[in-house]
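Section: Multi-chain targets

For targets with more than one molecule, the full set of components is provided together so that the structure can be written out for the assembly as a whole rather than chain by chain. Components appear in the order listed by the source. The example entry contains two components.
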Amino acid sequence: MQVNDRRPRTAGMAVRGRPRRRDVLRGMAVGTGALAAPAWLTACSDESTSGPTASGEPQRGGTIRMGGAGGGATDSIDAHKPVTKLDIARVHQLYEPLLIRDATFELVPMAAESVEPNKELTVWTARIREGLTFHDGRPVRPEDVIATYQRILDPKTTASGAQLLSFLDPANGMRKVDSRTVEFQLERPSALFLDAISEYFQGIVPEDYDPKNPIGSGPFAYESFDPGEQSVFTRNDEYWREGEPYIDELVIIDFPDDTARVNALLGGQVEAIESVPYGQISTVENNGDFTLLTSESGNWNPFTMRVDAEPFSDVRVRQAMRLLVDRQQMIDVVLVGNGAIANDIYCPGDPCYNDSLPQREQDIDQARSLLAQAGQEGLQVQLTTSPVAQGIVEAATVFAEQARAAGVDVQLNKVDTGVFYGDDYLSWPFAQDFWGTRSFLAQVAQGSLPGSPFNETHWEDPEFIDLVEAAEREPDQNKRCTLIQDAQEIEYDSGGHIIWGFINLVDAHSTSVAGLEPNVAGHALDRYGFRHAWLAS
Amino acid sequence: MSALVPPAGDGGVTAPVAGQTPGLLRRSLATGRTRAGLAITMLVVAVAVVGPFVAPGGETAIVGPPNASEVPGLLFGTDVTGRDVWTRFLHGGISVLWLSALCTLVGVGAGLLIALLAGYSRTWVDEILMRTTDVFLAFPAIVLALLFLAIFQPSAWTVILTVALGHAPRVARVMRSAVLDVAGRDYVRSAESMGLRRWSIRLGDLLPNVTGPLMVECGLRLTYSIGLVAGLGFLGLSGLAIDQADWGLMINEGRTAFTVQPWPVLLPVTAIGLLTVGTNLIADGIARAAAGTDREVGE
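Its structure, encoded as tokens over all components, is:
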């Protein structure tokens, strides 16, 4: 049940840690301490950076400018509703949740010192880090923690994390125990509590929080913010990690255009960029002044088949579609090799991930025969695609070509991002989307239950639901894993996703920037980890 | 532009026969400019028309790693999803050609109709038609096209109609002044006095005598059509399937990897550029021939 910082990943319920833990780990290779790290973590942990990187003792001072993808006039700096990647980058600087998933997908304490459950997983006790202060110097109190979750749960806030905290009653579910302790009374037992509070959009803010004057306890304090253009942050001198942050100032600049972002890096206008377009990786790679930062992740861009819509309501059609995919070719072509093959189930980083299921391979004959059994020979389907993330449209194009081999005619319906997320979003019979890295139960809550906000496949399998609900209530890790693996097997056999790969993040920075490491949590640039980045002179 | 009005058989009472068009073409072909334009245009048209039949593979087949400029056995490497660039180039011209040709035909046809109606009515019809075209002229053609394609789902027909809609007012303005000029000639008056219907005068007396500027307009609008159709293809709005080969689309797909693999952009850009220059040279040649004729008659 109990986990502390020296035994990572062995139990996974309560979390406890000391401030300097990351620093100790950082001295060694990240990830070597993981005892039971899943295969996708360990396999490639040492091939993740290319090119020279500064080394030695971190140096103080300087400004790092980061070029980010996406962003626009609707950019936000609100702690609890980041939307674009740049919003996420900003949230990571200003705010910290009680816990967070670290570079190896372990839960580590941030604003909290420890979070522990009772035996039934109904009462959770969080202890706030000693001496933790907000940017304006006020201490972080239990009142602030309670007010934070009340703000998130207030429907008026439209916070990203409200759904995840559905087991928490904002009025009566939280109680101040003493000057540093908060007790959470859940409405149902839930093993999901830790995942729910460790998302980046659950940062702790003061009781009188106002997004116009954004204050948090993160490594950088607010200086200025121009939506769609740039934002500036200054060093938080009172930050709890000793010595961090090393740089004095961080500037985050919007680059909606891929080419402009890469050119800004090559031209020296920024020191680091996220998401190097696949087509330009070799340009950066072959330039000795820059370092590629490649991180394995659990990010996935599935094809989504609605299990309640023709022709996918027939499970044999779904199975056939999955057999059409040449997964290795998908990785090679769509991701230019920057990814790992997947098996139609998600969350490879979850300690309970079911890796005993046989790897599904392309099998045109089997697919043809399944389609024949379903009476769907010469099947014609429309696939709705949209450039919502890098490689999405390319994946659709490659899939259409692969399907042709089995006589399946996939007609590509390319729509604008606005149309894709418009009125028909979540009701396209056959479409695509992109997902980040989560633990299994957290992911299921987001996308695979009838009440999930993004259930694209309209997945509503009674047996699956029972297994997931039982797993969420189950305090014992081993029993929970068995339940989760059974649930995954159901999705493997009859689910509506085609999950062909897990995607590596490819970012780049100047060789003068040190301290950024590969991070499997699925966010760019070491989870925008500028608190431990430094500039070599 | 009214200076471009063709010969009108000064003082003649019968309408001159529509015989000048071959003469005009022949005269314009005598210049090196037109011949060069024709040669260039024919070259690109030949590539686009014959290309699909001689292409080494299927236009959607994945044959190698993405964005590789040097793949054994492939002339120009692969594109963003590992397809043969040369094959896609050979397949990708025909859509640009037939779309631009239809855009030109519909646009010039509509413009000519407006011009014949407005230029030979001398009533409020002329005012209404020309003021309406003025409103359309206030918008750049690409803005109009984007507006309409945002409202209607892009398909080949909506592309043709929106591009043609951009052409029509411009054609109408030029052709109206040509019609106006002819409408005052004696043979038209004579036809009127014989009691001929106005539409038969329009088609029988006016139209044959504005073929010079009409030819120039055709060439000019074809040049613009090629640019617009390729531009809309680049923006993914040409209404074609996204895995279909198309020069405009190829440029867009290849642009982020241009520094690594330039061919998916260079080949279609060169072809579109040549085609535009070629059709423009022809249009220019015809315009000069027509203007030369005009001067001869006038002096």
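The first helix of chain A runs from residue 21 to 27.
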